[in-house]
Amino acid sequence: MNMVRLTLGAALALPLAACGGSVVPPAPISRPPAGPPASAFMRSGPLMGMDARHLVQQFGTPRLDIRESMMRKLQFANGRCVLDAYLYAPAQGREPVVTHVDARTPAGMDIDPAACATALQAK
């Protein structure tokens, strides 16, 4: 009877022994690379390089002000057009500036951002 208990105990312990291997530490969590500065993506055009304060002075209070870790989107609208201005910091610690602009009619058709900016200023 002792031999049966020993054999049964050893048989039950073997599968558990397979689970007790070395523990692999998790990989360290790292931040994604900062990427190139926003100035690398800037194109010429209306509003490019303006900061949020200047946009608000020009168009009034934005309809939307969305902030993410590295980006800010300001949306201005009236009955004639909707303008989205995307702001990114040109360098670490600097004020975010407009690097991209989209404009559309209230129905969603793309229009020229300069024409939309003019329409927004006319109020």
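The above is record 1. Record 2 follows with the same two-line structure.
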Amino acid sequence: MEFEDSNLNALGLYVAESLNKYGILYCHMIEPRMKIVGEKFECINKLLPMRKAFRSTFISAGGYDREYGIRAVAENRIDLVVYGQLFLANLDLPRRFELNAPLNMYNSETIANPDPVVGYSDYPFLEETNA
């Protein structure tokens, strides 16, 4: 769902609280929570009231990298992280996160390209050396 309202925070909180009545298994919210500060990202944490109100699994997407995802889960701000663009550009993302390896940069110009070779399938996999 996408909402437009004069008070999105209050609306989001109302929706999160209302979902509890129906035994919904999870709530997945997306917002651009990250803002660029110099060359770093800062978490805005606007979803925290909704996370506290919703009594089941809370999932969020919107600009997470490895560090912020780990921290958000550790601080109980969310239960699960969605890594949309990062996963599209790094189909081996779990292994890259495990090794704290460099990531491929996401190319928004080719990701939805109808070409069967350019876009989803042309990102390189991590080359590991046997130690």
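The first helix runs from residue 8 to 19.
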